[in-house]
């Protein structure tokens, strides 16, 4: 089969994420031209036909196919309390479509949320697609007619690109034996999630601390997260803990892969470090960064398969930390601006404590996600409070 046509089998790296919806939303202030946004979305879907695709069949034989008659939905909701929760509760079925757009319109306030199936976008592909949507929206709102030829190709299968440009799939095989699975009769657990948002000045303190201690903001946040989980577990001994982080390989292969050239080109890796409740998050974070750099120094990933041990219980020994980094401000027409980014998690059950870290408009945000299978709301509040206090201490120390 010619893989440049608007139909191809889903690659096994994509099948792992099939029917899991990725939703991020940009909050706006000002007057939004809904007609211009609708035109921008139609134009985007014409240029990038993967957004008009539907999944035919089931795994492992699922096929990504573009139907000429299918146009992704633009859903309009009223700006009411808990509207982001309502977006997260909207039904999802990749056989009906792998993308749609949700517009929340209120009085000079609302949200624009792009929903995509995880099989066709990782976080960076989503950000690239969303930024292109808002660039087109800004142009249409200004009365311009953006250029763009109708697309005829689907993104390349990620496994094929890994083999072509790296020679292998760079797995971290330690993740094949991680996390406590659910009991067969336990059912689906609920999620406990929320945001920790630092102010502009607090974020600047943290950046200054990262420079002073010769590490990264991601390293400092990772160190503070592991320490907060270690404090909740109790005890004073040093135990092995594991920071699990997705890594984007687009710039790590030769030639580099374009942002929208493929679908899922991120692989998760483990940085192991010993943590005691008395250890500084700076030292933990520097060790996490050093261990991660060691793993990534070789192209083959981590081949050891020894299982990681959850010595703390409840999977507190693990933290899945996704770093979106500094997200450049989204383009917007005159008279409005996109003030905040929201990550809406709707992928269902989770076993690791999870965190999404990003900085937008000079403010660092940490989204936390826990399963109520293992944690109470009180547990989560304690972890978030400890995390915030540790970040403030580190920032003030610089």
Automatic annotation (TrEMBL):
Residues 194-366 form the Phthiocerol/phthiodiolone dimycocerosyl transferase C-terminal domain. It is an enzyme of class 2 (transferase). The keyword Signal does not apply. Its EC number is 2.3.1.282. Keywords: Acyltransferase, Transferase. It catalyses: 2 a mycocerosyl-[mycocerosic acid synthase] + a phthiocerol = a dimycocerosyl phthiocerol + 2 holo-[mycocerosic acid synthase]; 2 a mycocerosyl-[mycocerosic acid synthase] + a phenolphthiocerol = a dimycocerosyl phenolphthiocerol + 2 holo-[mycocerosic acid synthase]; 2 a mycocerosyl-[mycocerosic acid synthase] + a phthiodiolone = a dimycocerosyl phthiodiolone + 2 holo-[mycocerosic acid synthase]. One of its GO terms (molecular function) is acyltransferase activity. Belongs to the acyltransferase PapA5 family. This is Phthiocerol/phthiodiolone dimycocerosyl transferase. The lineage of its organism: Bacteria, Bacillati, Actinomycetota, Actinomycetes, Pseudonocardiales.
């Amino acid at each position: 089969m010619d893989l440049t046509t608007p139909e191809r089998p889903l690659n096994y790296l994509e099948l792992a994420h099939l029917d899991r919806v990725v939703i991020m939303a940009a909050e706006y202030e000002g007057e939004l031209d809904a007609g211009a946004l609708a035109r921008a979305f139609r134009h985007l879907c014409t240029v990038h036909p993967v957004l008009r695709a539907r999944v035919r069949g089931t795994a492992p034989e699922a096929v990504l196919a573009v139907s000429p008659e299918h146009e992704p939905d633009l859903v309009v909701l009223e700006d009411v309390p808990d509207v982001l929760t309502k977006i997260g509760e909207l039904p999802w079925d990749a056989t009906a479509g792998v993308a749609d757009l949700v517009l929340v319109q209120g009085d000079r306030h609302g949200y624009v949320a792009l929903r995509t199936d995880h099989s066709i976008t990782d976080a960076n592909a989503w950000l690239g697609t969303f930024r292109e949507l808002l660039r087109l929206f800004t142009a249409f709102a200004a009365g311009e007619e953006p250029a763009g030829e109708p697309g005829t190709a689907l993104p390349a299968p990620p496994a094929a690109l890994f083999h072509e440009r790296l020679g292998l799939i760079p797995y971290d095989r330690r993740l094949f034996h991680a996390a406590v699975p659910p009991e067969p009769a336990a059912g689906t657990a609920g999620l406990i999630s929320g945001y920790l948002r630092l102010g502009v000045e607090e974020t600047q303190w943290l950046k200054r601390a990262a420079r002073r201690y010769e590490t990264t903001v991601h390293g400092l946040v990772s160190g503070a997260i592991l320490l907060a989980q270690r404090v909740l577990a109790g005890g004073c001994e040093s135990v092995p803990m594991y920071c699990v982080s997705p890594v984007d390989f687009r710039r790590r292969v030769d030639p580099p892969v374009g942002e929208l050239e493929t679908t899922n080109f991120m692989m998760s890796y483990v940085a192991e470090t010993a943590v005691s409740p008395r250890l500084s998050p700076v030292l933990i974070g520097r060790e996490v960064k050093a261990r991660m750099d060691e793993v990534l120094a070789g192209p083959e990933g981590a081949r050891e398969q020894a299982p990681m041990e959850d010595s703390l219980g409840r999977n507190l020994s693990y933290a899945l930390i996704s770093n979106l980094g500094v997200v450049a401000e989204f383009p917007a027409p005159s008279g409005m601006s996109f003030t905040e980014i929201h990550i809406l998690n709707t992928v269902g059950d989770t076993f690791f404590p999870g965190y999404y870290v990003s900085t937008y408009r000079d403010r660092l945000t940490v989204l936390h996600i826990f399963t109520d299978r293992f944690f109470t709301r009180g547990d989560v509040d304690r972890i978030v409070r400890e995390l915030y206090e540790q970040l403030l201490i580190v920032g003030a120390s610089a």
